[in-house]
Amino acid sequence: MKKGIILVIDDEDIVRTSCSRALTPSGYEVKLAKNGHEGLSIMGGDKIDLVLTDLKMPDMDGIEVLKKIKQDWPGVEVIIITGYQTVDTAVKSIKLGAFDYIEKPFTPDALINAVSKALDHKNKSQQT
């Protein structure tokens, strides 16, 4: 049984692949997008439970992706992943509706933990 459908949006192939390798054996279905536009296109066609998005990407950054997801799919949780963490961007992400913010490089356990917490929160929110 699938635990949820997760979309990973990151311009780095190694990050997308690493997330998929960490999450798939734990029972998650993982979809991959190399940029924000591709990710939003997938959002429009598939039922996505959670989005992991990079903060710094060409064309459309993670903040823009977060705003669009929260506007068009408010029930979808978003976790920002980045190697450029600052307090300001972390606070801004959370204020805009991100569930969490994790810094690269992260361990598979840290990723699975963050995803599990976000999906638990989503499920509890839908029950109320």
Shape: globular
Task: Give me the side-by-side strand order of the main sheet.
Answer: 2-1-3-4-5
Find the CATH topology.
Rossmann fold
Q: What is the C-level CATH assignment?
A: Alpha Beta
Helix content: 40-55%
Instruction: Count every helix, treating DSSP H or I runs of 4 or more residues as helices.
Output: 5
**Helix and strand pattern:** EHEHEHEHEH
Kindly state the mean pLDDT as a whole number? 92
Strand content: 15-25%
Using DSSP, what is the number of strands?
5
Domains (count): 1
InterPro entries: Bact_response_regulator (IPR050595), CheY-like_superfamily (IPR011006), Sig_transdc_resp-reg_receiver (IPR001789)
Keywords: Phosphoprotein, Transcription, Transcription regulation, Two-component regulatory system
Protein name: Two-component, sigma54 specific, transcriptional regulator, Fis family
Pfam families: Response_reg
